[in-house]
Amino acid sequence: MAMTIHVDIVSAEGAIHSGQAEMVYAPGVMGELGIAPRHTPLVTHLKPGDVRVDNGKEMMHFYVSGGILEVQPHVVTVLADTAVRAADLDEAAAIEAKRRAEEALAGQKEQFEYAKAQAELAEAVAQLRAIEKLRKIKKS
């Protein structure tokens, strides 16, 4: 029997996932993180992207818009502003959000507007990447 670690993924709307995993992968601001059972304690910021939870039987994908990752030797907690099962992402809405953010960047007047548009663009692109990863996995 493989060692496992408990994983909780929580957003402002509520709990998205709670269960055991053999491995967890998350998009840290300094790069991709791989967390196995008995990992060294860690707290870091997450950037928008795909959180993957491998329970030994299947790889589950979740999109997070950013947030905080806390790792303890036997527990991983993802606190996200927004968290969605990757299969529930709306590709058309993500494409539209990307288009609006790119328009806002082109027509920005103030630094605040520019920073907000950049954040919206990064989130839309991360959603589209998560959709594309899931699409590739389903094909194989």
Automatic annotation (TrEMBL):
Q: What is its main location?
A: membrane
Ranges for domain ATP synthase F1 complex delta/epsilon subunit N-terminal: 5-83
Protein's cellular compartments: Cell membrane
Where does the ATP synthase epsilon subunit C-terminal domain start and stop, copy by copy? Answer: 88-132
Membrane-topology descriptor: Peripheral membrane protein
Q: Which residues form a coiled coil?
A: 98-134
Superkingdom of the source species = Bacteria
Question: What does UniProt give as GO cellular component?
Answer: plasma membrane; proton-transporting ATP synthase complex
MF (Gene Ontology): ATP binding; proton-transporting ATP synthase activity, rotational mechanism
UniProt keyword terms in alphabetical order: ATP synthesis, Cell membrane, CF(1), Coiled coil, Hydrogen ion transport, Ion transport, Membrane, Transport
The entry's family comment says: Belongs to the ATPase epsilon chain family.
Relate the protein's function as given in its record.
Produces ATP from ADP in the presence of a proton gradient across the membrane.
Assembly mode = F-type ATPases have 2 components, CF(1) - the catalytic core - and CF(0) - the membrane proton channel. CF(1) has five subunits: alpha(3), beta(3), gamma(1), delta(1), epsilon(1). CF(0) has three main subunits: a, b and c.
Q: What is this protein called?
A: ATP synthase epsilon chain
Species name: Sedimenticola selenatireducens
* Gene from which this protein is expressed: atpC
